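User: Hi! I'm working on a homework problem where we have to compare a predicted structure to a textbook description. Could you give me the structure for the chain below?
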Amino acid sequence: MAIDRVGVIGSGTMGNGIAQVCAAAGLSVVMVDVSQAALERGMKTIGSSLDRLVRKGALDDLGKQTVLDRIRSTTAYDDLAGVDLVIEAATERRDLKLTILKQVEAIVGQDVVIATNTSSISITELAAALKKSDRFIGTHFFNPVPVMGLLELIRGLQTSDETHQSMLAFATVVGKTAVTAKNAPGFVVNRILVPMINEAVFVLQEGLASAEDIDAGMKLGCNHPIGPLALADMIGLDTLLAVMDVFYEGFNDSKYRPAPLLKEMVAAGWLGRKTGRGFYSY
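Assistant: Happy to help. Predicted structure tokens:
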């Protein structure tokens, strides 16, 4: 089934980024959130992102307006009726996602693909909450969505081949390269990335090197574009802790134990860029 109309649940960092890349690819988008204020913030973020493209000469003013016009923002789930694909991009909380997915299934057609944008929650478990679980799949976009070229597709035990093929085609349409993973905590990228960041926190906690030297070492020694601690601040320390907790619970393996310093900083509210303080000050 061709995907022409996309519903996006959530207008935060990931949701508005997904809405932008879909609209930029010529798709019609319905972006849903719980309040008009949240939607206005999301649309403002999209506008600012498009403005950067205009300044770079990659887009003109008419092109910017065309993209914005393809996005309809609403607080009503009923407005999702008629879409071909729904991507839930709410906060990384299992209970919240389950509630939203059940609401969505009650509105959309039987053939509509339902996806969750998650970095760690079990796709098989979420799919089990749906009456038609074979049309459910995980879509892990990377932040910032308009810039990052990867889309990780995660098949639950129930995901059909048809659903998977539809999303491979969708990835091409929105200009992303898709990699496919089986369902397991962290999937592929975060299974490797987040424990590496956690280990960098352990190295800092043990006083082996400063944050600056740890990041410089990984940038210059491993050719990473950004150091692990600076990346942690960009992702959000609360998000990283939540993912490590999922790993620790899911694998029942002590090698996924969150660094005590990470837990302490989250408790202090030092979450990185979004709070102005993390491993660095902003």
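For your comparison, note the following. The first strand starts at residue 5 and ends at 9. The two ends are 46 Å apart (CA to CA). Good luck with the assignment!
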